[in-house]
Amino acid sequence: MYEDVYPDKRFNKTLAFMKKHVSANEKILDLGVENPFSKIMKQQGFSVVNTTGEDLDNDQHALQDNDYDVLTAFEIFEHLLNPYTVLQQVKSKKILISIPMRLWFSPAYRSKTDPWDRHYHEFEDWQLDWLLEKTGWNIIAREKWTNPVKKFGLRPLLRRFTNRYYIVYAEKT
Questions:
Q1: Residue 164 three-state SS
Q2: What confidence tens digit (pLDDT) does each residue in 104-159 have?
Q3: What is the pLDDT of residue 1?
């Protein structure tokens, strides 16, 4: 894999999954402003355009105004109040979504300093699957993985065994 290049396990897993389902000649619209992972996608030869920070709950023009073959949404849907509407507006026939999964032993994430950095949804896998199904997407592939942390305590121990991330590749039916 890419452990020597990308120290974040999430980036390594996401990139490996992405390379299985997206070719470098496909145009990607990545939801969210440019970020460390969109830079990695570009370094790996993918053609990526990011949205510009608009509130996707209220403004989905970027989904309609851009020319793209694949939509990616890596850790974005948990911040949206209404991901259903966003999924209905996607023009492409392919989508890759990753989410942090809801953990039974930890409350939903909410930044104490950034009012935009909070999770409205922390999905269970079946909830994201159902959302995709209801908006006309057919799941082709999926993976889950843990996200252990180097700390002591009950929660860090549970993170070693409890899946934290879920990634899905789906096509429009």
A1: strand
A2: 666 666 667 776 676 577 889 999 999 999 999 999 999 998 877 788 887 767 77
A3: 46
Q: What is the pLDDT of residue 7?
A: 57
Within 13 Å and on the Cβ side, how many CA atoms surround 149?
A: 10
> Which option is the CATH number for 9-172: 3.40.50.150, 3.40.190.10, 3.30.70.3270, 3.40.50.880?
3.40.50.150
What is the rounded distance in angstroms from the CA atom of residue 93 to the CA atom of residue 141? 15
CA distances from 111 to 10, 21, 40, 117, 146 (A): 20, 33, 25, 6, 22
> 42-96, pLDDT tens digit by residue?
999 999 999 999 999 999 999 998 899 999 999 999 888 899 999 999 999 999 9
Q: State the number of CA atoms in the 13 A half-sphere of 153 facing the CB.
A: 9
Give the pair of three-digit tokens for residue 64: 């309609």
| Cα→Cα distances 22→40, 96, 125, 162, Å | 14, 9, 22, 28
